[in-house]
Amino acid sequence: MLGPWLLPDRESDGSTDAGEETEFLSEITIRESYPHIGTPLGEIADFQRDGVQVRGVRRAGQIGRGGLDDLVLQKGDAVIVVTTTSELLTLAEQPGLFVGMRRRFELDPEEPVKVAEAFVTPNRSNVGRRIADLALGRNTGVRVLGAHRHGHIAGADLSSVHLRPADKLLLEGPPEGLRLLSEAGHLVAISEPGGRAYRRRQAPVAVLALVGIVALAALDVMPIGILALVAVAAILILRCIDSDEAWKSIDGGILVLIFAMLIVGAGLEHTGAVEMIVAFVAPWLQGMSPFVTLLAVYAIASFLTEIVTNNAVAVLFTPVVIALAGQLGVDPRPFAVAVMMAASASFATPIGYQTNTLVYGAGNYRFVDFLRIGIPMNVIIGVTSAVAISIFFPL
Description:
The protein has 14 helices and 9 strands. It has helices spanning 3-6, 85-92, 136-140, 175-183, 203-218, 224-237, 243-248, 252-270, 273-285, 290-307, 310-328, 333-343, 354-362, 367-392, and strands spanning 23-30, 52-59, 62-64, 78-84, 97-99, 114-120, 143-148, 168-173, 187-191. The protein is elongated and about 90 Å long.
């Protein structure tokens, strides 16, 4: 119930800048070789994905909108969909499916074909014309895979879309044809599509790589860093992703933040700042009761972990709490365990640990989001840990 307030969804404004893909209106023609001919549409996995919205089926020139799940597909049917770029390109690779408009002539099989996104210009020869009436294929070899119009669906089906300025088209054709369209002023901002076809057959490879990293690292077969590099090499070799996708997944800003965080932590450690903080608070702990002292030790270690590496906190603070336990005349083990637990729980800042920083960028979060959910988590875990420690290691 508190989730939407603690972690608001900042991608729900319709913006595609944060990684959200454009949704295109398209049509998928069923060919004779499609293996699911004779199957109700609602039972075909290709059209039941989360990113695929079936809007109708055109058969014999008529578009049906109702009872689509029970409609048995036939050869020549055109399934009208609104779907993301990645799902549309995935459908285009399925045997027996033809996505988008047809070309007026076949291209040379040796000629390279490129998929691109482009915006329609306010050109008189474009505006108001139906996509089906465009001579893209005859003049340039380019065909339309999908059309997007901001705010609403562009038409009843792809072929009947009347173009407007700023409509976005998903195109397929030879690079030379795309260049000619741009030079003629019909299209602008021709760029690579915002998504790529899913490689769902390779999903077991990615899952196996992740399981292998965790299992082999847990068995201490090899350092986790080396295992991760081996897994990345395997994922690239087995074509789960290509090199372009791998490089694009690296956020330079996040890397700079991680390196800066490590440098600041190292500076605090090597200049003696952490030791100075510990030496300052140690006298204040001596007059407290053992349980209150345990809570204070956890709180201090947790705070330091948010700004310095957890290893540095454990190394510098553990000898202090052991000596403190000796002055109080109690078992030092609960205090050492408290430091260990606190040094492993850093949720309140995106710089508390490298994984926090990675989530910070990937989730489009802000610093205050970590404070909202991280501080309560630190408090809950701290109190729970202190109670459990005092039970298993009586003070």
